[in-house]
Design a protein that fits this description.
Layout lengths: L33 E5 L4 E4 L2 H10 L4 E7 L6 E3 L4 E4 L11 E4 L2 H11 L2 E4 H6 L15
Antiparallel strand pairs: 1-2, 1-3, 3-4, 5-6, 5-7
């Protein structure tokens, strides 16, 4: 059938079974899982928000919708609408240490409590994403 005009939706992730498109690790922590849908309708799944941002730069398919999980409620939210907290205290699966929040006040409170940085989607995408403890496959000599 024709998919004409249908809005992309957040995908279903089979935790403990599906693997990250960037690092190949099994996706197991819903708080940090992320995904995007490409213009052609393909879905890319990630175990860490940072992995999604790294993979997107080299993907030959153009993403049209990005999704992240709210750190507290664990529900899918559009990545562009989220507030991000990045810092060593966050401890995400691949070490990018980024958590997403739907509510700005909750994100601000979490950032202050953990000594982390509060960021918007635009700021996060513009950031120089280098890992604090860089390890393959993310490090490039």
């Amino acid at each position: 059938g024709c998919r004409g005009g249908r809005e992309p939706r957040p995908p279903a992730i089979r935790y403990g079974r599906d693997v990250c498109a960037e690092c190949g690790m099994i996706i197991s922590d819903e708080r940090f899982a992320a995904a995007y849908v490409t213009k052609s309708g393909e879905v890319r799944l990630f175990d860490d928000i940072g992995d999604m941002l790294v993979y997107e730069k080299k993907d030959d398919q153009e993403p049209i919708a990005y999704y992240v999980h709210d750190f507290r409620s664990r529900k899918w939210i559009p990545a562009e609408a989220a507030y991000y907290v990045r810092g060593e205290s966050v401890k995400s699966p691949m070490g990018w240490n980024i958590a997403a929040f739907e509510n700005e006040a909750e994100a601000r409170e979490f950032a202050e409590k953990t000594g982390s940085r509060l960021m918007t989607w635009q700021e996060l995408r513009a950031a120089d994403l280098t890992m604090p403890h860089c390890r393959p496959p993310h490090c490039r000599p």
